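ok so for the tutorial part 2 we go from a plain amino acid sequence to predicted structure tokens. step 1 is just haveing the sequence, like this:
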Amino acid sequence: MGKLKGFLEYRRTTAPYRPVQERIKDYGDVATVLAPNVLTQQAARCMDCGVPFCHAMGCPLENLIPEWNDLFYHGMIEEAGARLALTNNFPEITGRVCPAPCEAACTLSINDAPVTIRQIEQAIAEALFSKGLVVPLPSHIKTGKRIAIVGAGPAGLAAAQELARRGHEVVVFEKMHQPGGLLRYGIPNFKLEKWVIDRRLEQLRAEKVRFETDVTVGDDISASFLRRSFDALLITCGAEMPRDLTVPGRDLAGICYAMDFLSASNRAIQGEPHAGDGDLNAAGKSVLVIGGGDTGADCVGTAIRQGAQRVIQIEIMPKPQEWHNPWNPDWPYWPRILRSSSSHEEGCLREWSVLTKGFEGNGGRVARVHAARVAWDEPEGRSYREIPGSDFTIDADFVILALGFTGIMQGRLINDLGLRLTAHATIAVDSNFQTSTPGVFAAGDAVLGPSLVVRAIHQGREAARHIHSTVLHTLP
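step 2 — the prediction. this is what the tokens look like for a chain of 476 residues:
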């Protein structure tokens, strides 16, 4: 362990956010960083438990958290980074955007505040970069096998790096202008600045991963061509089909999906002009975000930075319990408690148990939303009933639907490959990540459905391992 009884000597400390009035004027990272001596103290709180639930239950990547906490506490940064690299290709990214289920599962969370695992992870990664210790690791062995990956999100990037390091020729096809997927186009800059992604992409390119962007596989290039040209195909296209709201007035202008809104904002910041993006801007508008999850919160923060006149966020689910104690009431599982993001601190009215019944327009554009209150019959939120006489309206001329996703986009690629899908509209795979079509694999949200970046990275790594084993068996 880091320090005997360190968890008794030091209290949990987290890095504060930048002041609200400062950060809403730009798209820079809202978070600050802790001083090195404070981070060392935080690592000392790791208590060398008999069963490290952070590793065993909390982290989808199975990060060796107690080991690198101990090494970080003793100043052994390179060794800590080596432990971290065993399970995670992009700790500088997960250390910024992961909701940290490991901290919810930390043994200290039984009756105390957990270790600040995520911030220590980020600190290790950044220390390695600053010391010039993150270097390309190109393979000196060439298998002669070619692997195509469709989708340059976290799963595709992790798989690409693992396969390239095993000596395969890897080509990643991406429909967007730059690699990164959800990391680049779905997560706002104030949570993940894009230089963080670009820095890691330089390493992948130096490891001979090739990126073909602005390519929609199935349209610009056929699935049959990929099957002929490559020894294996991995699909990591994500689960991008947005959940819609089928109510009167849905066809009015001024109503958009959350991912369209966030992507337009990120493209504008990156200097990527795109037709139609001009309409996806909240400047001077009364904004209503429908959906209370993390994506909805990202839309709130983005709308505020764009200069929205007012932002309201509504959610049909009941308000979670407010919890002000430092420990986890549902340990070691993810707690079902009210959470507020940095975006909510910046000026947003939030409402729960609100049913959206329809939209009303003015001149073809949305002007107000008709809603009603609902009562949930069960605390877990399985069924609800509309409260009679609770109807009300919300003035809004820009509405963002942040209702989650329903599965993959079923375009020509999926159809041409003849892939079997699950009941949840995701790609069905076996225990080796192989689809119903031999030689075609899938991983990440395309298999899981909408999930966490850490789960996507883990799936990409595992798929790469099985692809490597499969193609090696076909060597002459």
